[in-house]
């Protein structure tokens, strides 16, 4: 995955994380694992963690602390109503962007 | 009488904290340092390097700094417990991760202040009402 991909993902990764959480609640590492499976191999776990901290601060997720066998308790993130609203807004912006880019790609305007 | 001296003591501590900084923050910072010290060597080295980089942006006891260090320690302990490879945590470009991380906290005070100053200067020059500084 190249530099260009990293640059393009910068503005969309938060939306991607919200979209993953819209399907089901997850731990941080489950989100990173899913991204890796989908071919986003270069995304740092730390970056995903930082985004989870952010969406928690902004009130988009409900967090439940679950005790774990090794290490500190793990946080399970689930999307709440505010998060769903924000995700909808993300998809609207995304649709706009991708339609326009597709038009450009096809050479029309 | 006892209550009164208690109040005096609290007031004294309050004044003292103005000079020394928050005792609570100092305690939390020491606790953070202790958590990092307990990490396996390779994790400790990486996270200490990150702390050093973060210090560049502002005082370790500035507003929001303790939350930042505690979030960092959570990540460090979790990663060490899972034995997540260092490179997987920090990525190919560690700066990318740190930049995403630091945006969550008001530690970059001087950066934020300068951004506001610039934003407001443009607003004034454009003949608009000055935005509320955040």
Protein topology:
The complex is a heterodimer of chains A (109) and B (134).
Chain A: H1 3-10, H2 13-23, E1 26-27, H3 28-37, H4 45-57, E2 61-66, E3 74-79, H5 81-106
Antiparallel strand pairs in A: 1-3, 2-3
Chain B: H1 2-20, H2 23-37, H3 41-55, H4 65-82, H5 86-90, H6 94-102, H7 109-125
Helix pairs in contact in B: 2-4, 3-4
- Counting structural domains of chain B, the number is 1
Instruction: Identify the biggest protein-protein contact and residues per side.
Output: A-B, 21 and 23 residues
**Which architecture of chain B does the CATH hierarchy give at level 2?**
Orthogonal Bundle
Structural class of chain A: alpha+beta
Helix count of chain A?
5
Output the helix-strand order of chain B: HHHHHHH
Taking all Cα atoms into account, the compactness measure Rg of chain A is 16 Å
| SSE pattern of chain A, N- to C-terminal | HHEHHEEH
N-to-C span of chain B: 45 Å
Mean pLDDT of chain A: 91
| Largest β sheet strand count, sense and barrel closure of chain A | 3 strands, antiparallel
Shape of chain A: globular
CATH H level, superfamily name of chain A: Winged helix-like DNA-binding domain superfamily/Winged helix DNA-binding domain
The number of helical segments of chain B is 7
Q: Which percent range fits the helix content of chain B?
A: over 70%
Report on this structure.
The complex is a heterodimer of chains A (109) and B (134). Chain A is of the alpha+beta class. Chain A contains five helices and three strands; from the N terminus they run ααβααββα. Chain A has a three-stranded antiparallel sheet with strand order 1-3-2. In chain A, helix 2 (13-23) crosses helix 4, helix 2 crosses helix 5 and helix 3 packs across helix 4 (45-57). Chain B is mainly alpha-helical and 134 residues long. Chain B has helices spanning 2-20, 23-37, 41-55, 65-82, 86-90, 94-102, 109-125. In chain B, helix 2 (23-37) packs parallel to helix 4 and helix 3 (41-55) runs antiparallel to helix 4 (65-82). Chains A and B meet through helix 3 and helix 4 of A and helix 4, helix 5 and helix 6 of B.
